[in-house]
Amino acid sequence: MASWNSVPLEVLYNILGWVAFVSWSISFYPQVILNFRRKSSAVQRQYHSRYGSNEMIPVAANDVAFSAHAVLLTAFTLFQISIYDRGNQKVSKIALAIVSVSWLSVAVCVFVGIPKHSWLWIVSCFNALQVAMTVTKYIPQAVMNFRRKSTIGFSIGNILLDLFGGLTNYGQMAVQSIDQNSWVNFYGNIGKTMLSLVSIFFDILFIVQHYVLYPSRKEVVSPNLDVEEPKGH
């Protein structure tokens, strides 16, 4: 394998590469920050028109960051599925049907909403679809735990973190409501409200299954089980 002949040039090569990476990565932010500062958005205007001009937009920067992060990780997971050995595992026909219906729903919402510039309505449709997909995502795991009467192999740590995230999300919304002396942000962003409610419900269900209904029982193994008896001479 070829190697660098000059260490300083190798260091410079790596520095320039990472500088380019950082520059390209940061380049996405100025426009986002400018848009945030200007708050020029047809969706926001429609929101204020429906709920009142004095109401604060119930979408925080962390909501946008979470959505972007979730999309990236989901795309990466799909990439892993496509390149790793899956054995005889296949995507079920039910899953394919659900995905097809979801994309068809997205297409219908966009097709109906764009000509009328009903951007807030489109966002509401996406929120409803997100809640429906979240419910669909949780049900198979709950059913499998029930049928197996066990949660072995199921990561409860993920559920505990998810529950904590849902509770803190509600806390964030409550803080904004108390500060603004208005609870519009709960029903003005019904997608976020329902998403947290659904997540908390299933998280509590999984916790009950894991710790109460189907607690794992560790087998006690004798310390001398696999120890070979010394042979006599």
Would you write up a description of this structure?
The protein is mainly α and 233 residues long. The protein has a domain at 39-67 and 92-213. Helix content is 72%, strand content 0%. The protein has helices at residues 7-26, 29-38, 42-51, 61-83, 93-113, 119-148, 156-180, 184-188, 190-213. α5 (93-113) packs antiparallel against α6, α6 packs parallel to α9 and α7 runs antiparallel to α9. The longest helix is centred in the middle third of the chain and has 30 residues, at 119-148. Mean pLDDT is 79; it is low at 219-233.
Summarize the structure.
The chain has 233 residues and is mainly alpha-helical. It has helices at 7-26, 29-38, 42-51, 61-83, 93-113, 119-148, 156-180, 184-188, 190-213. The protein has a domain at 39-67 and 92-213.
Beta-strand level of the residues, as a percent range?
A: under 5%
Low confidence ranges? 219-233
Distance between the termini: 56 Å
The H-and-E topology, N to C, reads as HHHHHHHHH
* Assembly level: single chain
Number of DSSP strand runs:
0
Please supply descriptive tags for the structure shown above.
72% helix; mainly alpha; 0% strand
